[in-house]
Design goal:
Helices cover 35% and strands 18% of the residues. The longest helix is centred in the middle third of the chain and has 29 residues, at 266-294. The strands form four sheets. A nine-stranded mixed sheet has the order 13-21-20-14-15-19-16-18-17, with helices on both faces. It has a five-stranded mixed sheet with strand order 3-2-1-4-5. It folds into three domains: 4-126 and 331-363, Nucleotidyltransferase, domain 5, CATH 3.30.420; 179-324, Nucleotidyltransferase, domain 5 (2-Layer Sandwich); 371-498 and 505-596, Carbamoyltransferase, C-terminal domain (DHBP synthase, Alpha-Beta Complex), CATH 3.90.870. It is of the alpha/beta class.
């Protein structure tokens, strides 16, 4: 009889569930996709329900349930931190107590209540879950492993070695010295939300100059050659208060934190660039040290900092490892998968046969909706749509995009992790100079400086970018090839800060960032047949083998999960067309009264 292991992450941010059957990943999903609450931290009841349904089992068929960290150890950190900094932070400590005493310490009871009849309940260490999520799904029989995030129980970074079904962490950096918290402090200071806006800071960085790097390394971070470091806690607030920074930090950088939604100044751009450069340097030093200590050829990465695709790109180009594999759900959501795989391989002692393959299945691990379900939805809602055969659909949509249309693309199983990978995506023509601004303002309703990523045919990637290998999870940034760039105009020096986005930089300006780079997703026909077919049809029409690919959502919402979510997003934005499986919907054919009933989306203008 098959053995089923359920992994759970919950109660902090990005709650999720993942199910492993006989060592194979059957399903994984984040709770936010079902509740429509972005970064939902609640116990993932709906995600668990989906995973069990996908496997066709009930809770009583679960041999093991693994939670992704150890709440008692986290509570110990909270107590010790409060004592160490007392009486400062007493108010924050007391504010945290009700939720800890009310729910976080009693997770075993909650799991037993939600999963009546399940088997053994385990609690993994946080960075152990991250490490397992990085190594076990990777294509490497053996590899070094590096995990970097804000904080788990006590650990903030760790490294070790995986071989076969064995995984051993060998060294760590402990709280309060944390690269993730350092980056989040600057995220907060630059006016973005912690645990949500870090990717905005990364996208803003190329608009600035690294003129605060020396200040950071001299005053805030004591960085060692091996990548270990200590933070100067005199400048941070996260140990004693709900804010990440304090007055000393603000004086050091010339003023109070940027007010969210206020104009982005050149100084803010420079601060973003500086902390991004420091982060990259720390990651490079860590990786070089790990390589020196382990001698391994390959490196696996996880933890929230592993979502910093700019640092990942530099690590691939400049680091000592032959290749990287990065968990596509590197944050807390991926901890659910890591906990399940750790239970299977380490606790149950089951062997691992990687076979040189990526076991994430392109991260297509969420719910799918078949043609009959979509047809039933369209009929019930009386939505006008046209059903097309796969080849005809690809050709028709490719023609629409080539003509300037924007398309919501809903196909196959929902992605696991924060990146849109061609299953729940908004697609457009990367050759259009005005498309980056148009998508941000009219469809995504977000800051105009935010870059977009190209989805490119795997077999064409090296013709357009300085990248010689797959990047299926949009986790690597690489330069656009020089032959695709345009010469710099006389007005280049006059543009500063976010105004630099106005210059047309390449043949594909809508996905070329201001530093002539792009965050790349390669599309393989074996993993993404429908998406590959569409991009190939677009190439036949235009000679360009790539499209803009951004997540199918608007500001403040998670990516769409169901046909209803997709249809609502389609109506609330200026998307021209929507693809639901085999069906093509035109905005022009939708009843006007439907759109009038939907609440408006809050826009961001900067």
């Amino acid at each position: 009889m098959a053995v089923h292991v359920l992994g759970i992450s919950a109660l902090y941010h990005d709650s999720a569930a993942a199910l492993v059957r006989d060592g194979e990943v059957v399903a994984a999903a984040q709770e936010e996709r079902f509740t429509r609450r972005k970064h939902d931290p609640s116990f993932p009841v709906r995600a668990i329900r989906y995973c069990l349904a996908e496997a066709g089992i009930g809770p009583d068929r679960l041999d093991c349930v693994a939670f992704y960290d150890k709440p008692v150890l986290k509570f110990d950190r909270l107590l010790q931190t409060a004592c160490a900094f007392a009486p400062r932070g007493l108010r924050s400590f007391l504010a945290a107590m009700p939720v800890w005493l009310g729910s976080k310490l009693w997770l075993r009871r909650r799991i037993e209540e939600e999963l009546d009849g399940c088997g053994e309940i385990l609690f993994c260490e946080h960075h152990g879950s991250h490490a397992a999520s990085a190594f076990y799904p990777s294509p490497f029989e053996r590899a070094a492993v590096l995990t970097i995030d804000g904080v788990g129980e006590w650990t903030t970074s760790a490294w070790g070695v995986g071989e076969g079904n064995r995984l051993r962490l060998m060294a760590e950096i402990a709280f309060p010295h944390s690269l993730g918290l350092l980056y989040s402090a600057f995220t907060y200071y630059c006016g973005f939300r912690v645990n949500s806006g870090e990717y905005k800071l990364m996208g803003l960085a190329p608009y600035g100059r690294p003129r605060y790097v020396d200040v950071i390394l001299e005053r805030l971070v004591d960085l060692k050659p091996d990548g270990s470091f200590r933070l100067n806690l005199d400048f941070f607030g996260f140990c004693t208060r709900p804010t990440m920074t304090n007055r000393r930090f603000h004086r050091l950088f010339g003023g109070p934190p940027r007010v969210p939604e206020s104009p982005i100044t050149e100084r803010v751009c420079d601060i973003a660039r500086s902390i991004q450069q420091v982060t990259e340097e720390i990651v490079l030093r860590m990786a070089r040290h790990v390589h020196e200590r382990t001698g391994e050829r390959f490196l696996c990465l996880a933890g929230g900092v592993a979502l910093n695709c700019v640092a990942n790109g530099r690590l691939l180009r400049e680091g000592p490892f032959e290749d990287l594999w990065i968990q596509p759900a590197s944050g807390d959501a991926g901890g659910a998968l890591g906990a399940a795989l750790a239970a299977w391989h380490q606790h149950l002692g089951r062997p691992r046969d990687c076979g040189g393959r990526d076991r994430m299945g392109g991260a297509s691990l969420g719910p799918a909706f078949g043609s009959q379900e979509i047809e039933r939805f369209l009929e019930m809602e009386r939505i006008p749509a046209t059903r097309l055969e796969p080849a005809e659909l690809a050709d028709r949509v490719a023609g629409l995009i080539a003509g300037g249309a924007t398309v919501g693309w809903f196909e196959g199983r929902m992605e696991f992790g924060p990146r849109a990978l061609g299953n729940r995506s908004i697609l457009a023509d990367a050759r259009d100079p005005g498309m980056q601004s148009s998508l941000n303002r009219k469809i995504k309703f977000r800051e105009s400086f935010r870059p977009f990523a190209p989805a490119v045919l795997l077999e064409r990637v090296s013709e357009w970018f300085d990248l010689d290998r797959p990047s299926p999870y949009m986790l690597l940034v690489a330069p656009v090839r020089a032959c695709r760039l345009r010469s710099r105009g006389d007005d280049e020096a006059s543009l500063v800060g976010v105004d630099r986005r106005r210059r047309i930089r390449s043949e594909i300006p809508a996905v070329t960032h201001v530093d002539d780079s792009a965050r790349i997703q390669t599309v393989d026909a074996a993993d993404k047949p429908a998406f590959h077919r569409l991009i190939a049809a677009f190439e036949r029409r235009t000679g360009c083998p790539l499209l803009i690919n951004t997540s199918f959502n608007v500001r403040g919402e998670p990516p769409v999960g169901s046909p209803l979510d997709a249809y609502r997003c389609f109506l609330r934005t200026e998307l021209d067309y929507l693809v639901l499986g085999d069906y093509l919907l035109s905005k022009a054919q939708q009843p006007e009264d439907r759109r009038a009933k939907l609440p408006p989306v809050e826009s961001v203008l900067d």
